[in-house]
Design a protein that fits this description.
Blueprint lengths: L3 E4 H9 L5 E2 L7 E4 L4 E7 L9 E6 L4 H18 L7 H11 L3 E5 L2 E6 L2 E4 L5
Parallel strand pairs: 1-8
Antiparallel strand pairs: 2-3, 3-4, 4-5, 5-7, 6-7
Helix pairs in contact: 1-2, 2-3
Length: 127
């Protein structure tokens, strides 16, 4: 599986396509606040068998595969554009869906977290 790194700003840009406004007060906070949404975004989730490695995850208060698919579609669209494809077509998005991989899922009592072990949120370049 291909390792994918996104900055917090890139993640926000990707998710804005879903009409989700994600606001980050501090780049190094682990949770992204989502206004008026069922989603809660986590930049530092460490799931089962990840041995301390962290990744991007989406916590929902219900299990709706369509909701998670929308997040994955937004990520695939953004990554295809970041890869130089100005207007991604279906095959381009499928390629990025494959690179992202099927999200893993953990139950969290009242909610569920869906996470992509190969997607990490990295610090912005400070040049």
């Amino acid at each position: 599986m291909t390792a994918i790194a996104l900055t917090a700003a890139e993640l926000i840009e990707a998710l804005e396509r879903l009409d989700i406004y994600a606001e980050i007060d501090n780049l190094f906070e682990e949770e992204f606040a989502s206004n008026g949404s069922i989603y809660r975004f986590r930049s530092g989730y460490s799931g089962r068998a990840m041995y301390g490695k962290s990744c991007f995850g989406v916590t929902t208060n219900r299990y709706e595969s369509g909701d998670v698919a929308r997040v994955q579609l937004a990520l695939a669209h953004y990554l295809a554009r970041r890869d130089g494809i100005e207007d991604p077509e279906f095959d381009d998005l499928l390629e990025w869906f494959d690179k992202l991989g099927e999200p893993s899922r953990d139950s969290m009592g009242l909610g569920t977290i869906h996470y992509w072990p190969n997607v990490t949120i990295v610090a912005e370049d400070t040049e």
